[in-house]
């Protein structure tokens, strides 16, 4: 069964105990992630659930992992969940098979199944499987409006005993990335800054918190790569390396920019010729011509492949630890050369 928007949020907070599998998807993957967290809390109660996390690559490499995890019983008798993060394409057939098997035999699996995905078209096989199964649910989430984001910011600040001036709130919300998980990180940072401040946050506070030299340097490296300037990108990376900036920080900034470009493509396809002011952060009129040229170098399908490269690079960098930065440097260089070669 398909639930959308507010209905999907309500189901995630209070999941039907008869439903054993849930597909949560959104163009903002952070919303799908938050839904997974809510489902685990709703199903698990106290002390919580035993959760196994799998992704596309792990399951594609060893398909039996999925069914083994679903069938495994907790040694302590705790409720269990298998949480799969997927692009929706690589392992769609296998996930659909698991949904169908659990629907056919309610005793087949010991664990609940949570599938988190990005945007999925109506003809998606994965969507069809979740929508058509009697014991599964399909949750579709939509990107938040600015008023919703502003409400979350004020709530987070109130928890710290702080408030924010309206102009500062508008500026902060406007600069937030259009991705729930990344935006949450920025909101948490603002709340920590406001703790014990003793006065309302103002516009100068917001600017001081966000406009740091390191942030501008990272943006310079990302922009140089996506615009097709390998030399400038590598020079920027050299400076960041000297400052001890982590590769993960660079990847997160790259991810934010790619998501913004994907959002721009979607709005343009919907008939908006210049959606810059509606993006997060916005693209101002003076910057739009250059941004439009960049979009021409990176069609939506190509950007989706870049997202896969970013996820792979992040995984490799985390595994490699302090010596993982060359992985990021290679990705930035590859992107810069690819953009440079576009005519």
TrEMBL record:
Against Gene3D superfamilies, the record matches this protein to: 1.20.272.10
Catalysed reactions, semicolon-separated:
DNA(n) + a 2'-deoxyribonucleoside 5'-triphosphate = DNA(n+1) + diphosphate
Instruction: Keyword check for rRNA-binding, yes or no.
Output: no
Query: What is this enzyme's class at the first EC digit?
Result: transferase
| Cellular component annotations (GO), alphabetically ordered | DNA polymerase III complex
EC numbers, comma separated:
2.7.7.7
Q: Which GO MF terms does the UniProt record name?
A: DNA binding; DNA-directed DNA polymerase activity
What is one process in the GO biological process aspect for this record?
DNA-templated DNA replication
Question: InterPro entries recorded for this chain?
Answer: DNA_pol3_clamp-load_cplx_C, DNA_polIII_delta
Keyword Nucleotidyltransferase annotated? yes
User: What keywords are annotated for this sequence in UniProt?
Assistant: DNA replication, DNA-directed DNA polymerase, Nucleotidyltransferase, Transferase
Family statement drawn from the similarity comment of this UniProt entry: Belongs to the DNA polymerase HolA subunit family.
NCBIfam families membership: holA (TIGR01128)
Q: What is this protein called?
A: DNA-directed DNA polymerase
């Amino acid at each position: 069964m398909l639930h959308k928007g507010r209905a999907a949020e309500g189901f995630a907070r209070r999941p039907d105990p008869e439903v054993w599998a849930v597909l949560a998807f959104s163009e903002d993957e952070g919303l799908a992630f938050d839904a997974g967290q809510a489902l685990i809390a709703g199903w698990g109660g106290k002390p919580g659930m035993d959760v196994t996390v799998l992704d596309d690559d792990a399951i594609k490499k060893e398909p039996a992992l999925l069914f083994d995890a679903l069938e495994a019983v907790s040694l302590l008798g705790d409720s269990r969940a298998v949480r799969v993060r997927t692009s929706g394409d690589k392992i769609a057939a296998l996930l659909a098979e698991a949904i169908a098997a659990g629907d056919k035999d309610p005793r087949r699996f010991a664990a609940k199944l949570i599938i988190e995905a990005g945007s999925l078209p109506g003809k998606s096989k994965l969507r069809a499987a979740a929508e058509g199964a009697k014991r599964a649910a399909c949750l579709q989430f939509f990107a938040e409006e600015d008023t919703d984001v502003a409400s979350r910011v004020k709530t987070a600040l109130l928890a710290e005993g702080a408030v924010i001036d309206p102009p500062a709130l508008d500026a902060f919300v406007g600069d937030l990335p259009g991705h729930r998980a990344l935006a949450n990180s920025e909101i948490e940072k603002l709340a920590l800054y406001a703790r014990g401040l003793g006065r309302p946050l103002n516009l100068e506070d917001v600017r001081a918190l966000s406009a740091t030299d390191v942030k501008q340097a990272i943006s310079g490296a990302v922009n140089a790569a996506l615009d097709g300037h390998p030399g400038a990108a590598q020079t920027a990376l050299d400076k960041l390396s000297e400052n001890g900036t982590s590769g993960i920080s660079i990847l997160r900034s790259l991810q934010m920019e790619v998501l913004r470009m994907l959002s721009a493509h979607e709005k343009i396809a919907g008939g908006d010729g210049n959606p810059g002011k509606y993006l997060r952060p916005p693209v101002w009129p003076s910057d739009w011509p250059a941004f439009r040229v960049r979009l021409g170098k990176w069609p939506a399908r190509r950007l989706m492949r870049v997202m896969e490269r970013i996820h792979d690079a992040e995984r490799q960098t985390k595994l490699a630890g302090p010596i993982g930065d060359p992985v990021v440097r290679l990705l930035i260089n590859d992107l810069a050369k690819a953009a440079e070669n576009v005519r």
